[in-house]
Amino acid sequence: MKLAPHWASAACWSTGRTAVQRLALAALVSSGLAGCAGQPLLVTPPTLAVTPISQDLESLPPPRSEFVVAVYGFKDLTGQRKPSDTIADLSTAVTQGGGALLVDALMRVAKGKWFRVAEREGLPNLLQERQLIRATRAEYKDETPMAPLLFAGAMLEGGIISYDANTSTSGFGARFLGIGGNADARIDEVTVNLRLVSVQTGQVMRSVTIRKSVASTRLQGNVYRYTSENRILELEGGVSQNEPMQFAVRQAIQKAVYALVMEGAETGLWEFADPVQGHMLLQEYKVSMLATQAAPRPGVSTK
Q: In angstroms, rounded to a whole number, what is the distance separating the alpha carbons of residues 203 and 11?
């Protein structure tokens, strides 16, 4: 269950108020709430879904030659539902759009100069559209031949293979003279696997597994104390921040594509157009891998 924000509230009660005063106070609070309800909610304009790893993919140098790949999908293999402490939530724990995220990541590598992606997830729609074109051309005696479909030399298989909730939790709180506060955090983890498979032989040429931590934090404070003999001040407020699961899965898939490019270049599956620049990137990748394995910490890591 995601951590929910606490909304600020304040109340100051006096046992000596008359019924008229209480009615006046209720009317004042109601009018205040009505005024707040008329205010527009915070609206942000739509933005491109770009992550720090997106920039790493786009900044990669181009290859010596393009590589044609097919993506038939990138499924959720966890079978898990959203964790909830109160209700049985039927929503899935992770996104079901992994295939679209994988294609987007492939198209970002070297700004689209590395992979040519053949559409396969929507293949039935594509074949039906081509059939409609053939039928229309035959009806109007148009003998212009259709271009052949792009075929791939390799397929990208895999999926979201693990989702673990509450792998780590922490918290701290304190209270003194009716004034206190507390902070807590939790860590979930999502894991993806990506495999490069040869179409002609069926051999798995490379396989990478990426784990991504998903953080949720909450900070809240409250006051409860007597301001006079018959008056109580009660105040509470807080804020929470939850990393979107879709954003975490996107970063994990992008990191898997980046690792696949690096390891494929290292084993000779493909080559950088600039060997010197490619060698430098490979050395940086190896150093980052060694650092991740030596001191694992929350974030994106390669297994």
A: 69
pTM beyond 0.90: the answer is: no
pLDDT tens figures, 185-242: 999 999 999 999 999 999 999 999 999 999 999 999 998 888 887 888 888 999 999 8
Burial label for 190, CB within 10 Å (0-12, 13-18, 19+), is buried
pLDDT tens for each residue of 190-204 = 999 999 999 999 999
- What is the set of domains in the chain, with CATH numbers? 9-13+48-285+297-302 (3.40.50.10610)
Per-residue pLDDT, 291: 82
List b or e across 156-175, with b for residues whose CB sees 16 or more CB atoms inside 10 angstroms: bbbbbeebbeeeeeeeeeee
